[in-house]
Every structure is written in structure tokens, then in C-alpha cells.
Amino acid sequence: MKNINVNFNLNGEDISIDCEPAKTLLDLIRDDLGLKGIKRGCEIGECGACTVIMNGEAVASCMVLAPQTEGANIITVEGLTSDDSLHPIQTAFIKKGAVQCGFCTPGMILSAKVLLDNNPAPTRKEIRIAIAGNVCRCTGYKQIVDAIEYAAELMK
Amino acid sequence: MPVATPKKVKKDSNIRVDAQRKVSGKAKFIEDVEYKNILHGATIRSPVTHGRIRGFKNRDEIKNMPGVKAVITADEIPGDNIVPFVKEDYPCLAEKEVKFYGQAVALVAAETPEEAKAAAETAELIIDEYPGIYDSIESMTPDAVYVGGDDNVHSYFKIRKGNIDEGFKGADVIVERVYNSGHQVHCYLENQGMIAEPIQNGAISVKGSMQCPFYVHNALVKVLGFKYSKVRVVQADTGGGFGGKEDMPSIVAAHAALLANKTGMPVSLIYDREEDFHTMSKRHPSRTRIKYGATTEGKLVACEAEYIVNGGAFCTLSPIVAWRGIIHITGPYEIENIKADSYAMATNTVPCGAFRGFGQPQVNFANEILIDELAEKLNMDPVELRKKNLLKPGSKTATNQVVGSSCGMAETLDKTLDKIKFKEHKGNDKGPVKKGMGISTVFYGVGLGAEGKYFAKAGAQVHIKEDGTVFVAIGNVEMGQGAETVFNRICADTLGCSYDMVEILEPDTTRVPDSGPTVASRATLVGGNAVKDAALKVRDSLFKAAAQKMGVKPFDIKIKDGKYISDEGEIDYVDVVDLAYLSRERVAAQGWYKVENVSFDEKTGLGDAYPVYSYSTNACEVEVDTETGVVKVNRLVAAHDVGKTIHPPSAEGQIQGGAAQAIGYALYENLVLEEGKIVNPSLSGYTIPTTMDLCDVEPILVESAYDEGPFGAKGLGEPPMVGPAAAILNAIHDATGIWFRKIPCLPEDIVKELNKDINKEPKELK
Ligand code: FES
Ligand code: FES
Known about the structure:
The structure holds 2 protein chains of 2 kinds.
Chain A: E1 4-10, E2 13-19, H1 25-32, E3 51-54, E4 57-60, E5 73-75, H2 88-95, H3 105-118, H4 124-130, H5 142-154
Helix pairs in contact in A: 2-5
Chain B: H1 19-23, E1 39-45, E2 51-56, H2 59-63, E3 68-73, E4 97-98, E5 104-110, H3 113-122, E6 125-129, H4 136-139, E7 153-161, H5 164-169, E8 173-181, E9 193-198, E10 204-208, H6 213-224, E11 231-235, H7 248-263, E12 267-270, H8 273-279, E13 286-294, E14 300-312, H9 318-328, E15 337-346, H10 360-378, H11 382-389, H12 409-420, E16 433-445, E17 457-464, E18 470-474, H13 483-495, E19 502-504, H14 523-550, E20 558-560, E21 563-566, E22 569-572, H15 573-582, E23 588-594, E24 613-625, E25 631-641, H16 648-667, E26 673-674, E27 677-678, E28 697-702, H17 719-722, H18 724-736, E29 742-743, H19 747-760
Parallel strand pairs in B: 1-12, 8-29, 10-11, 14-15, 18-19, 25-28
Antiparallel strand pairs in B: 1-5, 2-4, 2-6, 3-5, 7-15, 8-13, 9-10, 9-12, 13-14, 16-24, 17-18, 17-23, 20-21, 21-22, 24-25, 26-27
Helix pairs in contact in B: 6-7, 9-10, 10-18, 13-14, 14-15, 16-18
Bound molecules: FE2/S2 (inorganic) cluster (2 copies).
The site of one FE2/S2 (inorganic) cluster (FES) has 12 residues of chain A, from loops.
């Protein structure tokens, strides 16, 4: 298949890249652009480990094909802060014990960011709904919900 | 946009040492590690559940496919074609016979993952199909097809204590029931994966997702025919294990290593979700028949039980699972007369192995419902009935082991009941939604116990650098449960340095002697004690150096708040290290710990099965929608006696996470097999709980110190998974008046039973 050229903004940087049209955004980011923060858990949109923020929405990057990214604004966990410091959501995840194996964590944090960008003071129920597409097998979610609640406070 | 960004998280004792790298996306899971010129492996698998391999039709065609560098079949294995587990029955690649759908038959390596996958999918094996057997009970019948083991029995254990016939004769009330449970899938979020790489001097190094680097090391030695010193195994960040990465990584690693050995290049073998579902181990499905006899006053006098698990095609860890099951099958009660038998049966299904709880969730679910059923028959409160029989210090377990002083059983029960307000729950559920409450009690043998005592040991190395920072090399791994943090705390607290000075190195089999597996909640007890042993040895040097400076004897020195103190003065830890370096004292040491005093007599099934037990009580409130059958767990209180807690947030995390898996086990997780083949191998086909399915678990930590444990700790990885299922089903009974004796207990099961009831006698549910 002939390669296509796609252009998008990733973590504040303009990207122009040639790739096969059937390539997923997940593969594009991990394999071609070398950012390994997003994870491959199922590749069929069921786990949320590959979550990125695309045009302000949390999406499963394994379900997005390269051509759909044309002109998009994409954020991964690497783009949460511009230097070595942590985003308040990351701080909150650490403080509240929301991290166990850590495989779901980058995606979970990005879903949380989209929620807090749109709703700075969510209820626990709203938090649960916002991360319902992100599966975590380790934590049972309670400490993750605690962390997002706490992050909202930190970001006030 | 980030606001008020703190530069760094303030060091605080509650913070896990691995959290920073994980929230920033910098943790290196195996797929995140970059290698140059790496090949990609894929596995050619059996398309049938049972059959004889006649040949490989298009091997040459596959070899010539684009990008393909190697194809390997069983005849090319340089060492033995065996992946060693408890028994040696599991071939690395099937040679003559395949015994389950998806069993590995051949391997390919190619330049890209797509090319490797295409080659594996094109492969055509010639196989004569045999009839298969899929059910463990069927597997026991005399004319069953032979699958494996001894007449299809992978393992058998028994317990004979007291006189069972006399025991039941003395009983006023007897209840006997059968309980069934299905497969449970680990669903660690990161699938299995390994990268093998040829390194200097003809050795092979393997890195990947795993719980037991030493198992993998042993497997590579066997399969490659290498010396131990020609193999190195390193654990990468591991995205969840729960037992599923205890034994299975040995297979994945052996396959990757065979390909790397043949091609002379690094080879990555990473499973996708579907492949992982079909071929990796599961929790054993079970059938438990259990019978309690009690006096009218509620004293348990006899228990007879039979525990049959479906072990699948190969034995793997079935014996240890069946053994843990039988040791705990009679429940956390003192009972004088016991007869129990456990069988792990061979079938043509995916091999079952270790999964958090190790055979115990199945039996706990059975005995803890039966005790409620007995209470109903005795017309007694189930709490009262438990209280009359629960283990306490000095009482004897099913194997005649005397319970030690670290036993918080009664306390966990009282605290749980108190918190959930068990007495006050009867309420106003007039509509179709009925509320109910249930409890369950658990005792849990910590570690591998007598059946796994060969593994009950661990090593560690502690090495202080010039500036006082410390390297700790360990043999037990972090897989999300917080082990790194626990080891960090134990080392820092022993030496008197701050937590941020201690670095835990990635587990590497060339650094530390075989430390057994990281399973059965043993990392804290066994690995922690090894770290402590090493740290104490180095601390002797520090005491010596400090004593010399202060002109006192080493034993006159105490450590407080990072200072070495005697009557003559005090010196900061960092300065003591300086002194030790100046006087050339030893600043590195190996630590070792082995578990003593476990025993098990195979004839009677009696002995001191485990070094110590931990205890827990779960209580929950559920809501059952009697129209749809949907059950919601509104509250779950879980009290755990874990000895002393070393890192409270990790302890809470284990309880929350374990309970979540248990709720899934009880209500949602339904693996469907048709003719031995899994038909729902995905996270949408097999649903695990999301945020919308769970409530916040309310944990209670009861601390009854255990002298042998590092700082009094016992271990907490597995117990949270054991008890909740029975509590939930007891609560469903409380709500509906119906005993459900199968898990998962699905909405359709509930609706069916409720309708049956209504058809029988159209009475209003209570
Ligand atoms: S990898 Fe994309 S949702 Fe699972
Ligand atoms: S922390 Fe392991 S999957 Fe969420």
C-alpha cells in the first residue's frame, strides 16, 4: 500500500510523517515517533491503556487510523508538562497510592485530565464515569478516584 | 494547562518508590525497551484440542516468506523439550501430540511483527484429531480418554484427622452441598512478553514481564542445554501478574531464547490479548463437595470434603493449588474429625495454574456459604455459629497445626461487623430491588508452605556507596504489589538512612541466588527478611566504625532519626558511612532467609503446613434487582490481620484491588469454553469490573505482630481475593432467600432461580 503523509501536532510539536494509511495512531506514536508512554493492552479499543488526548477528547489511540489525525492536536503523557516537573494529576496519583503496576496509569491520567479540563470540581460519580473506559486490574479504582478528586483540589 | 506545578513530590513516607517513573510514562515495560536490529517472534499453535501431529505441511514455504529468518520445531531444541514446573510433562514445543487448543507447536522469527504473524498464520500443521475430554468429572470416569498424569490425575492429596464416622455420629445436624466455580482469567493489563538476546561468551540474556526470574532461569538452562552461568534473566517493569506470570513466562522466555539462539539476534516475543487468553494459565474451575456436622449448640464436630479442580492439559502448578485448597477447605474453624481429598484432573483445556489465592478462593466460597446454610438449619445467627468455632491462638487447624499468637481472627470479625452495622441492616426494600448482607471469614497460610518448601528461601544484597546511598539487589519482584517500596523501607529502617537513599535494583538472576517465586504473599516475609539480614550485616560495620570514633562498644550504639547514638555522642548516618569507608570496613553483604518448621505428612495430611497464617473477614451489602437479576455490591468492608503493616497505602491498595478481582470473580467474570475452546477471548467478551461495577472497599487493618516477620509483617498479596465471593453470595441469599452455589453468579442465573421459586409457590419474597 502506498504511504501517505500526515501532519498533526504532538505535545506541542508539529509533526509531518509518512506512513501506511492503515497504521494506528498507537503504532505511529510508539513505533515511529518513539514515545512509549502510551501502552498496548488489547488493540481493539477495550482497555484504555493506549488513551491519548486528541482535540481535547480522550480517545483510544488503537482505534484511530493515521489519516484521521490530519491537523489534530494530540497530547500523550509525555506532553503533560514541558520540563521534568510533574502535572498535579501525576502528583495526586503518587500521593494517593493510585499506582500499582502502572500499566494503566498513563491512559488513566489523560482521561482524568480531559475530565478536569471540562469539569474542575467533579463528584466521585462523575470521576467514575469519566474513567469507565480505562480498565485497571490492580487497584480496584478507589485510590484512583481519590487521586483525581485530590488533583481537582490541587488545580483549583 | 498545569497550574502550581510542584517541582518534585516531597519525600513522604507514604510514597511508593516506583510511582514517579510510572506516572510520567517512563517506566520500562518490556515492549518499551528498545533494541537495535531486533527480530520478532510468533508462535504456531495447535488448531485442535487433542490430536497427533503428523507433520508440518508448508514449512519450506513459510521459511521463504518475506522477512522470515527462522522456523523452529521441537526436533531442533538443543536441550530437553521440557518446561520444568512441578512435574516435567509440559513440552516446550509439542512434538507428537497436542493436548489443548493453542498449544505451541513451532516458532518463527521475522524482521517485523507483521511478517512473523503472517508466517505463523500461513502455517499448516497436519494433525489427526483425537476425541477430547474437557470436564474434570468426566476425566475421572474409568473409560475417559487419557490426557495426562496418573489416570488423568495430575495430583492428589488427602487429610485424615480424628475419626470421621464417629464425628458425624456425634453430630445433631449435618449439611452437605456441592459448589462449583468457573475459570478466572488474570487479565493483567500488560500481556505476556519477553525479549531474548545473545550476549558475550555464548550466553543468552532474557528480559521481560515476570514474577519468578529463577523459574525462567531454570527453564532456559533446561531447554537450551546451557550451563547455569550462561543464562541471565532480568525482570522488566511488569504490568500485573496475580500468579499468571509465575510459571507461564518460562514458556514465553524459552520460545524467545530458542529463536535468539538460532538466529544469533535479539528476538522479541510479545503476545496479543487473544493469544494470551487462549494459551496462558487460568484459575482452576472447581467442584467442591463439602459436609459439616454440628451439635445443636453449634459446635462443629466433623467435616468431610472433596475438592476437584480442572487442571487442564498439563500439570504446571496444579499440585500446589490443590494442596493449598485442601489445607484450607474446612474453613477457619477448629474441627476435630476431618476427611478431605483433593484432585487436580487432566483435561484437554488450557492448563490452569497460579492465580492470587491459589486454590483457596474456590474452597472458601464453598465452606463459607455452607457455614451459613448450616446456621440456617440450626436456626442460629451465622456470626454466632462462626464465633463458636473460629480459630484462636492455641487451637488446632485441619492439619493439627497449633495456631500461634499472631492471630487476629476474632478481631477482624468484630471490627468488620461493627463497621458495616451488621445487626441493623434489615430494611425497607419493598420494591423489586432487595437488599441483603453477608459475611465470610478467612484464614490464609502465608507463603508456599510445606508443599513448596524447597522454594521457601530468598537472597538479597545490600551495598552502601561512598555518599551513603544504597543499592539493594533482590530476588523477589515488584509487579504492582509494592514490593520495591517494602524492601526500600526495610533496608532504610534497618540502616537508619532516609528512604530516598535506597535504590532497589531490577531483579537479575546473576546478582542474587535463587530466591524462589514472588507469589503467595511471600515477598514481604521471605524477601523482606533477606533484605533485613543483609542490611544488618552491613550495619555491623557501621556500628563498628561509629563505636571506634566515639570510643564505645558497638552494642552501645542505637539508631534514632538517622543518627547513630551512644552515651558519648551522636553521628549522622552519612558520616558513619564515611568513617566506615575510611577504616575500610565491609560495606556490602549478601542476606539470606529460609523458612523453617514446615512439615506435611502425605499419608495423614497432617503437619505444620505454613509458617504462619493471616486472617480476614469480609462483610458486604448487596442490592439484587429481582426483575433483571443484576446484583450491585453497595458496600464491602474487609478487615485483614496482616501482622504489622510496613507500607499502609500499598496494603490498602492490595485490599482494594484484591476485592475488586473477587467481586469480578463472584459476579461478572465468565470464561466460556465450547468443546474445550475459549469462545470469548477478549476484554469485552470476558468482562472484568470497570469503575462503574465497583464500590469503594472499606479496609480495616488489624495488626497482630508476627515475630518472625520483618518488623512483624506477614504479607497481604492474596488474602483480599479469597473471602469476598462467599460474602456476596451469602448477601444475595439474605436478599432473595435463595442459596446460589455457583460462581460467577450471573443475572440470568438469578432470574432463573427466582422464577423457579415463583412458579413453585407464588409467595412474596421476604
Ligand atoms: S490498547 Fe487501545 S484500548 Fe486497549
Ligand atoms: S495499576 Fe495495574 S492496571 Fe492499573
